[in-house]
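S., here's the first fold you wanted:
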Amino acid sequence: MTAEELRSIIAAGLPCEHIEVDGDGRHWSAVVVSAEFAGLRTIQRHQRVYATLGARMHTDEVHALSIKTFTPPEWAAHPH
């Protein structure tokens, strides 16, 4: 899997204003910005992202994914 493929999978399952994906093909890190995260705790946000990957997490197609999630206002206030 490529970073672009992983980004596309997340974007297809979750309306996002911004997505960054980096990794080596098995271990990934992602920054996901979505208005759908408003009012959700961190674990709930991560569960929403993991849900977009479905079985890919269970079949080891995506071995590890480190996620940082933000709402659009949080992202605007975040130094990046």
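And the second, which I think is the more interesting of the pair:
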Amino acid sequence: MSTNKTTPTGINPRDFLKTVSPARRQSDAFVLLDLFERVSGYLPVMWGPSIIGFGQYHYRYDSGREGDFLATGFSPRKANLVLYIMPGYQDYSAILDRLGKHKLGKSCLYINTLADIDLTVLEELIKTGLTDLNAKWSVTDGRS
């Protein structure tokens, strides 16, 4: 059985963000860092080399595969900001219709810049994603 390749690291998320370029991406990333921390209530943790996660959950599928993963978070990639709103199988179209310019993946939102979206709607999306995830698998701070 395979294990997750993306796991928590000891890297400080704020130190990581200081290395992000261009400057606009870095600025947006610091805004997201504060927003996710405030909305989720969890401290930021680096997952792998470039994802900042907030909270985590333990999953166990019917296949027997199990593991731990971040509950929500983001990654400031060169091409765009990638936001991880779990679980990916939920229909959030009513919220997404109000978010602003974005592209959608299974559990990811791709945003060019925060100026393209409504941050109040993003807060709603993060809260809803965490609530839905917690209903399926218990979300914790990862230290318990």
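Why I say that: The mean pLDDT is 91. The first helix runs from residue 13 to 17.

Talk tomorrow,
H.
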